[in-house]
Amino acid sequence: MTSANPLLRYASVMLERAAKEQKAPIWGVASRLLSGPTENRVAINLGRLSRIAAQDGALFVPGKVLGFGSIDKKVVVGAFSFSSSAKSKIESAGGTALTVEQFIKKYPKGSGVKLVK
After folding, report:
1. In this predicted model, what pLDDT tens digit does every residue of 22-33 receive, in sequence order?
2. Residue of 101, 93, 77 lying closest to 11 (CA atoms)
3. Are 113 and 60 in contact (CB under 8 A)?
4. Which of 12, 44, 69, 92 has the fewest CB atoms nearer than 10 Å to its CB?
């Protein structure tokens, strides 16, 4: 891990610990994506999330969710960060935008969670 961002390092370590403690490999993959080189980090628009998501689904983005596009499904989205417009659009559609820590507490085993790369 080479990131100088302490919040990014904290989130990555939290994901790695969840992977080991819960025996949930999805969190290990998410940790590697989040702590990797900046050019490999995930940044995804809401329009793409809307196409990927199922109604009442759970999505985890190891990076940032951007507000371009719209979402009309009630989904739970966990991510390292959200743009303010993305967060308000997710919540206005009836969904929930969670931090990495909140998302891991809600889905400790990663069951039913779709990792968005």
Report:
1. 999 999 999 999
2. 101
3. yes
4. 92
